[in-house]
Amino acid sequence: MADSKGIFIKISLILLVIGLIIFVIGFGAPYWIKADLDVEPTLLDRYYYRGNVHSGLWSTCEDYERWASEVRTSRRYRVDECYAFLGHTDRYVISEELRATQFFETIGLIGLVATIVTLLLGVCVESLKGQRIVSIVAALCCLASAGSIILGTIIYGSVDGVKDSLSWAFALTVVSGIFFIVIGIIIVVGAIVNK
To answer: Transmembrane residues, as ranges (predicted)?
Structure first.
């Protein structure tokens, strides 16, 4: 019977590690948005641009070709660079929405680590095994983290001009936030079943 009490915690730990891997990939990848460039020359800018620009929470990357509209100066230039937002504030202005998203996603990450540590304490420390308070604290941490992650993605996705270019890292983060809600519910059910 003692082994069946800990099964919910063990399942939750396995799912948390899987979810954390998915979240960290989305959290760090510079593919929250991706925009294709196909720009014709104008009176102000006499260059063609072909390629794409993609950006995440922490950096932006440019991968495009540029060439002049005049035939005699039509040498092509290839740009393939990534810039961290923190080191290039002169080049990229960081919006309040991006700062808020960085904050909420980071709080979510810290909360997930706290959830894992709490569950590991419930598994490894003899005096905490079978204690409902461990499951309740872990569930609260997990659900608060999921809420923070979802809130961060809502803030980021609600910015004008971003909705049409959301990319795979944004989707991974949303999926992981929903996944953590499910894990939090599993932890709560485990606490109720193991009275």
So the answer is: 7-33, 103-124, 136-156, 168-193
CB atoms within 10 A of CB 35: 14
Task: Look at residue 147 in the predicted model and tell me its pLDDT.
Answer: 97
Rounded Cα distance, 124 and 122, in Å: 6
Of 83, 82, 51, which is closest to residue 65 (Cα–Cα)? Answer: 51
Q: How is 147-189 classified by DSSP, letter by letter?
A: HHHHHHHHHHHTSTTTGGGB-HHHHHHHHHHHHHHHHHHHHHH
At 125 the pLDDT is 86
38 and 107 within one domain: no
What's the per-residue H, E or C state across 79-123? EEEEEECCCCCCCCCCCHHHHHHHHHHHHHHHHHHHHHHHHHHHH
Indicate the pTM of the whole model: 0.85
Q: Are 108 and 177 in contact (CB under 8 A)?
A: yes
Q: 160 and 143 in one domain?
A: yes
**Are 147 and 188 within one domain?**
yes
Structural domain boundaries enclosing 129: 2-31+94-193
The per-residue pLDDT for 36 is 86
